[in-house]
TrEMBL record:
This is Ionotropic glutamate receptor C-terminal domain-containing protein. The lineage of its organism: Eukaryota, Metazoa, Ecdysozoa, Arthropoda, Hexapoda. The chain crosses the membrane at residues 556-575, 631-654, 852-872. GO terms for molecular function: ligand-gated monoatomic ion channel activity; signaling receptor activity. SMART domains: Lig_chan-Glu_bd (SM00918), PBPe (SM00079). It comes from the Eukaryota. Residues 442-501 form the Ionotropic glutamate receptor L-glutamate and glycine-binding domain. One of its GO terms (cellular component) is plasma membrane. It is a multi-pass membrane protein. Belongs to the glutamate-gated ion channel (TC 1.A.10.1) family. L-glutamate binds at R517, D767. It comes from Photinus pyralis (Common eastern firefly). Residues 1-25 form the signal peptide. The record marks V661 as: Crucial to convey clamshell closure to channel opening. Residues 432-830 form the Ionotropic glutamate receptor C-terminal domain.
Amino acid sequence: MTSLIYELSLVLIVFSAISIKEVQSQIQTINVLHVNEDNYRVAESSVKVATLYANRKEDLKMNVKVETATGYRTDSNKTLESLCKTYGTMLANKAPPHLLLDTTRTGFASETVKSFALALGIPTISGSFGQEGDLRQWRTLTPEQQHYLVQIMPPADLIPELIRTIVLQQNISNAAILFDDTFVMDHKYKSLLQNIATRHVVTPVNPADVKTQLIKLRELDIMNFFILGGLDTAKMILDTADNLDYFSRKFAWHILTQENEDVKCNCRNATIVYIKPLLVDPYRNRLNTLRTSYQLDGKPQILAAFYFDLALRSYMAVRSMLGFNQWQQNMSYITCDAYDMVKKNTPPRNQILLKKSFSEVTGEELAYGPFRMVSNGKSYMQFDMELTAVGVRDGSPDKSVKLGKWKASLDPNSAIEYADSQSLQNYRADVIYRVYTVVQPPFIYQNSSFPRGFNGYCIDLMDHIAKFLQFDYEIRVQTEGGFGQMDDNGNWNGIVKELIDKRADIALGAMAVMAERESVIDFTVPYYDLVGITILMKLPKPSTSLFKFLTVLEHEVWICILSAYFLTSLLLWIFDRWSPYSFQNNREKYRDDEEKREFHIKECLWFCMTSLTPQGGGEAPKNLSGRLVAATWWLFGFIIIASYTANLAAFLTVSRLDVPVESLDDLSKQYKIQYSPLNNSEAATYFKRMANIEKRFYEIWKDMSLNDSLSDLERAQLAVWDYPVSDRYTKMWQTMRDSGLLNTLEEAVAKVRTSRTQNEGYAFIGDASDIKYLELTTCDLQKVGEEFSRKPYALAVQQGSPLKDQLNSAILNLLNMRQLERFKEFWWHENPFRVKCEKQEDQSDGISIQNIGGVFIVIFVGICLACGTLGFEYWYYKHRKVGNVIDITAGSKDAYDMNGENINKEPVKMPQKDLSDSDAQRFKTLSVYPRARF
């Protein structure tokens, strides 16, 4: 039984092989309706070569008959007319099409063919452009229709996907994609770089004005250029870019083409990443044979091979289905006129598995690469793209470096196979942002000794951000308009205008976040605390004088004291001279007193002077009248000394002078100090707008008060005596305009320094950070009052720029690392330009040498006068004229007069009465110093 079954199986196998051989030996006639775009030569010639090849190749057993219709990309009616006419002719000749071969690319022609094939149920192989969902007429195909309505993407639809791969792997933030008519990008404007944080522009090349096109793209801050097109188009763009000096480390140029020749341009010094199809060895001989034997020489080569393989495999798929009875028997066709759009009377196509048959075709080598069949919008020919870095110097190729290759794929994660992992990194555009700033210490210093020519708080901040985000930047100083203000017409100046006009990427510096600025540009998260507006004034210094102890009393008081001194001294002399009870007039009465003093003029002056000192005046007069004068003088001196001492302590101590202006309110209430902000500054804008708001409030209040439609109750509620809103800012703004708004901070500081006192002069109202820095680096200026209208500092970017989110991430990272606090600590508290000043609050309460130094001068002058007097006394004593000297000493034998005669021949006889002590003293003195006789 088993042997019988085995013999029957062998018989069946032999019979099947014979049947297959007989089927294959039959020549199948295949009718093909070919639809090609008008003047699309490469597809037309490739299909003709494929048809010729199929008819000549005897082992294929095919007789392919092709009827051609023309598709018009911009005219669907003409396309449909051509289709129906050709199709009707084939039906009339009883040669209905087995296959509709569609080589239209996109536009109305492609959509018309898709609609035609769907409606009439014609098996179709299409080489049109479009990924999944792009073919609008085939978006809702049923599973049955998907078997015989097949689309395979051409290479030009797959090559742009490499741009997505490069952008992702190189982290490119901006890109311009320029393409010519060899590529179709209509369906890729949104999908190519979708969900990628890359600012990009996809635009066709404008051959009439490429220069203007490149300039506009550069104004959009685009540094990475991708050219999709032929080499002639690439040469035109590269030559124009060279004339515009667009070849530097800021730019990156990529050329993606279907051609396989070398790139050429008249560039002076350019490096270009050149990407072209790579024909691998298994298919090289096949393509060369087709080119030499069948004249498959369409350009570009990869596209000609694609259409050849597409057509040939389509023929072979239909032949296979016909030969194996997989084709629908007695397949019906309807004409274009017979189709009913309402009833949708499309003939059924249940048994036609065209996609499966196409993917299973064997027996013929492929010309360029295998086909990967998935579904419409996901099926394509597999091929490789070679990446090469090409250098051009003075219009001639310099050197080329192979970077790697890329296997064409729709997978967004498909990677480039690099020859060196860092090879493409060397040819990427350096991310260099244009940073505009305003020099404003300590945020921005202009210092040529640093690499970028600047340093400061914001430079440290930007360096850390650049390191975190891996970009470079160049700084430009905005000399006019500062950070930017809006005029009455809504026009901007300064850095804000540069951002609006796309000439700047980042605004760096002490730029305050303001509502009107946020309407035209974007701000990052703040990097610095709230900073407001404050007042700068000259620091008052207490007056000092070496003879300040003399200023305790007014000049009139000093004159009166001196007058009283001389008058009292004179009275003492007079009373002592004429009083009978004075010592000099009544020596006998005071003979036994120990204190004996004659008050002549010199003694009176000395007595009155010493009475004013702690030493005291010494012996007082003996007479009562003199003592009354002395007592009166003592009482007078006590009062004067007490008053002088009390005031001297206050005058010589460091005074704590109160600044008359301590706030904006104080400044607005006085009139001796002029004040104003800088012209067109944020402070000026603040006061101008506050004054305008007060004016508007007044107008609203006035309209309410004078409204005739108000009831008596409503009018009574508004009938107040005082206007409820003050006009402080209106008056201040008028005062500022009268004072004159200065143009530069240097002018304002110079004018502040011209203030004579703290009660007269000029006060500057400006940014608190500027005023704080001036106070930090000078010793004669001070910040007065609290800050008002406080706003944070932040970086600014162009409106809608993706750079905003990146900067936000970097700033928040620095904030978390407390790096911003370190910047602030260094540039404010450890600033190299900081000046160590002696503050009033740091001074002791003692008397300074500046105020008490005159006392030492008085001592020095007194010592000098004493030394001079001593010298005069010595000179006078030595050179005085001596008269007749009589020796009255007892026992003296010789006494001579001036003529030399002896006048003392006998001893002098002294009185015998007792001498008083004073007389004895006088006698002793006369004995030692004989009295001269005149």
